[in-house]
Amino acid sequence: MARNEQDLLSPEIVNCGIKFSGPNSGSLTFSVRVQRCIPDFLQSVSLKYVKLGYHYLINHGIYLATIPVLVLVFSAEEGSLRREELWKKLSEDACYDLATVLSFFTVFVFTNSVYFMSGPRSVYLIDFACFRPHDDLKVTKEQFIEMARASGKFDEASLQFQKRIVKSSGVGDETYLPKAVMSEENSATMKEGRFEASTVMFGELDELFEKTRIRPKDVGVLVVNCSIFNPTPSLSAMIINHYKMRGNVLSYNLGGMGCSAGLIAVDLARDMLQANPNNYAVVVNTEMVGYNWYPWRDRSMLVPNCFFRMGCSAVLLSNCRRDYRRVKYSLEHLVRTHKGADYRSFRFGPSVFFHHSCLDCLTFCDQFNATL
């Protein structure tokens, strides 16, 4: 039994008294009862809920401070009146001069202005785009196995293994692969990786800018997420150079963070928009299939070949209030938990080297609750 499991158990010796029947009649008997200890609730409560409560308290602090004061003042003045006298005072006897009305209106406007200006800015999703390659790159499940067999890089056992994985993976017949994957030459090269990156990223960004009618120079924040392929110059630099973005654009390139980086990229873009009002942010998520392709017979390395396909997605975020009428969604909640301190979670994302010394880092984090 593991050490941490032993700490959760509490043994207890129970006196069962003297038995009057059976083989142990006339003797004092005992039994050992093992039960789980009461958990330490102080350690089990996640700090993220404390953080959410603190933010809720700060965002609604004006209401919590002004409403009790108004209630106390109103109660002190009108507490001695009966209900009929109170309605009569409010409807018939109320006589306010201009100074009182202006003072009340000034306090009301000031309170609302402070509330809306001090609170966090709303982040909107104006539109999104998903890259769809040409039909000549479309590969069905049967074609994938036949192309793998025709390449001559896999034995029959490896082909049967990939066939079983593809059949149960949920990958359909409308997926795409780059042509260099099944060629005789090595596809895991920097040249092929850059070509695939430029194809998918520029294709979906062209669609996104066309749909939103936003110029690339209007974008103030750019976040690109690609876990495995991280060249120099970076992918974000490729986008800035291709679209000739402005010189003060905030550019970030996330790498080696696995499937959780999609949420991290949105979180980073939101934080940048909170610090830079009246701005646009573009978040790009992609992965290079050709650079990650494994053309040998190790079964543990063949699994990514069966799951990953060619594609890219991009979203345009905004914190401009003038865009409220045309947005699709509003970012309400974004919660993520980093489990890297837990060795079991850290070990769950294995890091293995390809035969070409290519590091394949597959990292998975907890599910997130994001409402866009």
TrEMBL record:
One Pfam entry for this protein is FAE1_CUT1_RppA
Per the record's keyword annotation, is Transmembrane helix included, yes or no?
yes
Per UniProt, the keywords (alphabetical) are: Acyltransferase, Membrane, Transferase, Transmembrane, Transmembrane helix
Q: Which sequence ranges form a coiled-coil region, renumbered to this chain?
A: none
A GO biological process of this protein is: fatty acid biosynthetic process
**Which GO MF term does the entry hold, naming one?**
fatty acid elongase activity
Annotated ranges, domain FAE: 116-347
Which residues span the membrane?
Answer: 54-74, 95-117
Identification of the protein by name? FAE domain-containing protein
The source organism is Gossypium trilobum
